[in-house]
Please model this.
Amino acid sequence: MSAGPAAAGPSDAVRSDAGPAQDSTATAGAVGDAAELVVVGCSGSGPGPDSAASAYLVRATVDGVTTTVLLDLGAGAFGPLQRQVDPRRIDAIVLSHLHADHCVDLAAWDVAAAYSATAPWRPVVTYAPAGAADRIARISEVDDPREAKLGRSLDFRPLRQGRTERIGCFTLTVARVAHPVETYALRLEGPTGTLVYSGDTGPCAALDDLARGADLLLAEASFPDADGLPADLHLSGRQAGECAAAAGVGTLVLTHVPAWEDPQERAVEAGRVFTGRIILARPGVVVEVGGR
Model:
């Protein structure tokens, strides 16, 4: 049984683009046939000294064509995102919910898309809960959302429970989960494997069901393992491990740990109930999704 994050090695298909490659079969920034998760930001509830808030790239290449999907773009994440990819190459953005630590940097995206040296950018398809355009307009301090002209950079489309969307070589399915605002867990099925992202949620059957049989579960682990945790808000490390075990996933990537908490403790908690591979998210980490 794992008592903490698995040590990276050649068989783990894990590496970091923030430093020396940990997987001898991969090079920093390389894109192979297997789908990959790239951690851009992973700090819970807001940016911390070592990481931006939530933002994750998922990408895969089929027949020489790469599809790149961005999951969330929280506070401080637009900067490090540009170290990982030219934003103009992103095929779609999917927002799990509209709390600031998951969406606020879309305002920075819009500014770059309209005014940078490479502007104008094409509007990128952006799947999001209802009210996303108004939310980003308010962040940009525009009273009337129509004045924000967000359509120049972001093509907002509503997320809908039970509906699937095709994004290049990926199929997107969502499930409403347990959080105070409209929030969705996201399932991306690709050519070599399936990734599920919890978004922000308390324990719920919807997440267990969506994650069932996935190769990788990217799960928040905001809370310590303690009695009396608030319902329908966040997961603890143990609860993330319980979800991974119930769903039968192969790899659990723990994320969204606030900067004032110890991620290693979350991994230990998860390892008490989940015997698969456990990885702690950190900026620049790249994890292969299936394909092995």
